[in-house]
Design a protein that fits this description.
Blueprint: E1 11-15, H1 20-32, E2 37-42, E3 62-66, H2 72-82, E4 86-89, H3 96-101, H4 103-126, E5 140-146, H5 170-189, E6 193-198, E7 200-202, H6 211-220, E8 225-228, E9 234-239, H7 240-253, E10 259-262, E11 267-269, H8 270-285, E12 296-299, H9 314-320, H10 328-341, H11 343-349, H12 352-362
Parallel strand pairs: 1-2, 1-4, 2-3, 4-5, 5-6, 6-10, 7-9, 8-12
Antiparallel strand pairs: 9-11
Bound molecules: nicotinamide-adenine-dinucleotide.
Length: about 375
């Protein structure tokens, strides 16, 4: 049965809203649904940055709460204070390289944090419900996940919602575990959940440790452009605002207990993507073509590196009518321009704890 989330004033708790994708989701919902109250819960780790949301902060329907999804007491109080009708859960440790260096941090936030949040939602929504099987009418727990849970593809084929889970990195293993817990809460407690598994996102506010912003910013600074292994690793890239729109569609129209794959129909081999970004940057910086490509440096491969990810998003298109709107050429150019125009943001995120990690990894 199609689920319709009540469009009368409801309160949506968005976790991880100060991060890359979360900030676009918060902006999308706060602006498109002024009658909804949007509560952004974020621990402001190295990846969370309230500068991402300066334009949203004055909105009367927007609220920020600093806190940790691993903290059950904090969550209980937060649910009591704001009484959210639904949760869109994005908070996570999200960088594969970091998960290789410190897997436990990923288990703590992505697995334990998600289960702690599920408990908080279930207990808060079940409270005042006398029956043994609580009625979660009008409630929704939306879990945002990644296509990396499906493992790695060869040259052919696509991940569908039926593809067997086969995570290879500590990051994808932790996300896979969290997905399983979310589904277990649907089957065990009847919690109305919905999930999506999305391909790689790109766009403004992306942390400069991820490939696209890393390349753009290293070109800006004349630094080398590290490309793992032979550069033939393939990823599907989705414009982050298209992801926010897909989340909106699934949040409002997705069916309880279902999973929807989200993809960009936009596969790139890493080396081709890096060369494309080099050409765009040469043009934007007024440099001779080929200047930036001379910075490309092949570096030692990432352990357990998945060869190819590609998404079959036909379920989302056929059932709910969502499709990506932004073509890669346009999106890559917009992203490059955004980084050139937002040096203050960059200077901020490239300081402190992040700076130390970045220098260690990429110098
Ligand atoms: N980036 C991608 O390409 C991509 C693709 C598919 C799915 N996802 C998923 O989307 C979500 C967001 O990804 P992102 O790239 O925006 O990540 P991000 O690292 O940019 O942001 C994560 C946010 O979560 C917050 N956070 C981390 N630990 C927390 C905790 N314990 N309590 C509260 N807040 C905490 C951080 O402060 C940050 O603001 C993640 O769940 C990720 O797995 C990302």
């Amino acid at each position: 049965m199609a689920k319709t989330i009540n469009n009368q004033q409801s309160t949506i708790l968005i976790t991880g809203g100060a991060g890359f994708i979360g900030s676009h989701v918060v902006r999308h919902f706060a602006q498109k649904y002024p009658h909804h109250k949007i509560v952004n819960l974020d621990a402001l780790t190295y990846a969370g940055n309230l500068e991402n949301l300066r334009d949203v902060e004055p909105s009367p329907n927007y609220f920020f709460e600093k806190g940790d999804i691993r903290d059950a007491v904090f969550l209980k109080n937060l649910f009591e204070k704001h009484q959210p009708d639904s949760v869109i859960h994005l908070a996570a440790e999200s960088h594969v390289d970091r998960s290789i260096a410190n897997p436990l941090a990923f288990v703590e936030t992505n697995v334990l944090g998600t289960v702690t949040l599920l408990n908080a939602a279930r207990d808060s929504w079940a409270r005042g419900n006398s029956s043994r099987q609580p009625d979660f009418e009008g409630k929704r727990f939306y879990h945002v996940s990644t296509d990396e849970v499906y493992g790695s593809l060869g040259e052919e084929g696509y991940f569908t919602e039926e593809t067997r889970y086969d995570p290879r990195s500590p990051y994808s293993a932790s996300k896979a575990a969290s997905d399983h817990f979310v589904r277990a809460y649907f089957h065990t407690y009847g919690l109305p959940v919905v999930l999506s598994n999305c391909s790689n996102n790109y766009g403004p506010n992306h942390f400069p440790e991820k490939l696209i912003p890393l390349v753009i910013n290293n070109i800006r600074q004349g630094k080398s452009l590290p490309v793992y292994g032979d550069g033939q690793y393939t990823r599907d890239w989705l414009w982050v605002k298209d992801h926010a729109a897909a989340i909106d569609t699934i949040f409002h129209q997705g069916r309880d207990g279902e999973t929807y794959n989200i993809g960009g129909n936009n596969e790139w081999k890493n080396i081709d993507l890096v060369r494309k970004l080099c050409d765009i940057m040469d043009e934007l910086l007024g440099q001779p073509v080929g200047t930036s490509q001379s910075l490309i440096t092949f570096v030692k491969d990432r352990p357990g590196h998945d060869r190819r990810y590609a998404i079959d998003a036909s379920k989302l298109k056929n059932e709910l009518g969502w499709e990506p709107t932004v073509k890669s050429e346009e999106g890559f150019r917009e992203t490059a321009k955004w980084y050139l125009e937002n040096e203050a943001w960059l200077a901020h995120v490239l300081s402190g704890e992040y700076q130390r990690y970045y220098e260690q990894q990429y110098r």
